[in-house]
Amino acid sequence: MNPYLEQSDTWEDFHNDFISRAREALSAQVGPNYLVKIEVRLLLHELSAQERRFFGKADVGVVATASKSPSGSANAAMEAPLKLLLPAVEIERHTSLEIRDRKNRRLVTAIELLSPSNKTSGPDRDDYLAKRRQLLAGHTHLVEIDLRRGGTRPDLPVLPACDYYVLVSRYEERPNIGFWPVGLREPLPVIPVPLSIPDPDARLDLKDVLNRVYDAADYGKYIYLEAPEPLLSAADEEWARQLIG
Questions:
Q1: Which runs of E-coded beta strand occur in 22-69?
Q2: What gap in Å lies between CA 25 and CA 172, rounded to an integer?
Q3: 9, 13, 92, 173: which could form a disulfide with 43 (CB 3.0–4.6 Å)?
């Protein structure tokens, strides 16, 4: 993993393209019996008064020039009897992957790449944990990928200490799960993506997907001008600088 991709102004772009390129890799393998689809969940965040000051411009706007109405009566007739304030809302799009049976559209496998909102206390994390519990209680495989060091990981099971991880939960093997701990200085693994029995697993090369995203976005132009989030230890920072230097 490249820790510089964890910066807040880079992560959403990386997350979305990672999901798209993972779909490309899986679609080439699963054959005609499956569909690989991107699921988009819209998360709405009401902004504070301070955040509203920096809220974006409207898609379409009308600007009036200063002028005087001859009588003022027409404008007065159009005045609303009450004035209300709409809350300023920020929309976050969280993308994930679904593998579905082509014939009946049954959800076979859910692939989740954790985002900052999944690992921060609040309604977005609660929403993800509820979805996770529902998946684990049903007949759907779950592949959960965490490529962020910051935040709080989902509870249950208790995970061993590691910088990043991949969890693969096959519904027919629960409560047993497969777990891939990944250190900062280790390459990302090739992981299995289970399908319906008796079809063989697909394979997802996380390092290859990351490299394709990195090259397409040309992240090297700017991500190394800022520090990773969270900060690296002194030893890890020296190691990272040697790689990019």
A1: 34-46
A2: 25
A3: 92
Q: In sequence order, what are the beta bridge partners of 63?
A: none
Query: Quick check: 163 pLDDT over 80?
Result: yes
The full set of domain ranges for the chain reads 3-45+87-244
pLDDT tens for each residue of 35-78: 999 999 765 555 455 544 444 444 555 545 455 555 555 555 67
Measured CA to CA, the distance from residue 149 to residue 172 in angstroms comes to 30
Strand partners, 101: 34
Question: Which pairs with CB-CB distance under 8 Å and at least 24 residues apart come from 128-135?
Answer: 128/154, 129/154, 129/155, 135/110
Helix (H) or strand (E) holding 20: helix 8-30
Let me know: does 175 contact 167? Beta carbons within 8 Å: no
Q: Give the position of tokens 């992560």.
A: 11
Quick one: which of 225, 245, 232, 192 has its CA closest to 9?
Answer: 225
Q: In the chain, which ranges are E strands?
A: 34-46, 89-101, 107-113, 141-146, 164-169, 178-182, 190-193, 202-205
Q: Give Cα separations from 60 to 44, 57, 84 (angstroms).
A: 21, 8, 21
